[in-house]
Specification:
By secondary structure, this protein is an alpha+beta fold. It has two helices and five strands. The chain has a single domain, classed as YaeB-like fold (2-Layer Sandwich).
Length: 87
């Protein structure tokens, strides 16, 4: 089972947006803890990033890294579809 760590900015983003998004995100995190490469969630590997993935929930995107040697999933960015990929 993987441990999940969430960046402060992602937590703030979730508080700012709808409650249903927080619930869906929590449910997705529970599934990711079992297997961060699941087929039943809308997950894609990010190009040019070795261990980074994108989780899609509606129009929102969550970017996370999988750190295998410490069994950690680090969610580092969340935003609306087009804005999440900008630096």
């Amino acid at each position: 089972m993987y441990k999940v760590e969430i960046n402060k900015k992602v937590t703030k983003f979730l508080r700012k947006h709808h409650i249903w998004l927080s619930r869906k995100f929590e449910n997705a995190l529970k599934l990711l803890q079992e297997n961060p490469y699941r087929n039943d969630l809308d997950i894609k590997k990010l190009k040019r990033c070795e261990n980074d993935y994108r989780l899609r929930i509606g129009k929102y995107r969550f970017l996370y890294s999988v750190i295998e040697h410490s069994l950690l999933i680090y969610v580092y960015k969340a935003d609306i579809r087009g804005d999440v990929y900008k630096k």
